[in-house]
Design brief:
mainly alpha; 0% strand; rod-shaped
């Protein structure tokens, strides 16, 4: 039986966070969905309490909640691997090598 070796890991793995079109659509859906839901809740409260400002508070709360969820899921910036350093960057004291 031939020995099977594990597949080598790719040198530059793709970002693990949502990026590109799918990440943008997720952020968009969180914000639009939160705005719609909380605006409807505000509209219901406005109807029950005979006011006119809960719908605005609900919309702002929905936007803030959508942004929070998108940030919590890491959709604003892709997660990257460790930073690469140049070979001449290992001068700890910062004296430029001279």
């Amino acid at each position: 039986m031939p020995d099977r070796e594990a597949a080598p890991e790719p040198r530059n793995p793709p970002p693990s966070g949502g990026s590109g079109y799918n990440g943008g659509m997720a952020v968009f859906s969180y914000i639009i969905g939160g705005t719609l839901v909380w605006s409807l809740i505000g509209w219901g409260l406005d109807t029950l309490l005979k006011t006119s400002w809960f719908v605005l508070v609900g919309a702002l709360l929905g936007i803030a909640g959508g942004l929070y969820l998108a940030g919590k899921h890491g959709l604003f910036s892709p997660q990257r691997g460790p930073a690469k350093t140049e070979s001449g960057d290992d001068d700890v004291e910062g004296n430029g090598g001279s």
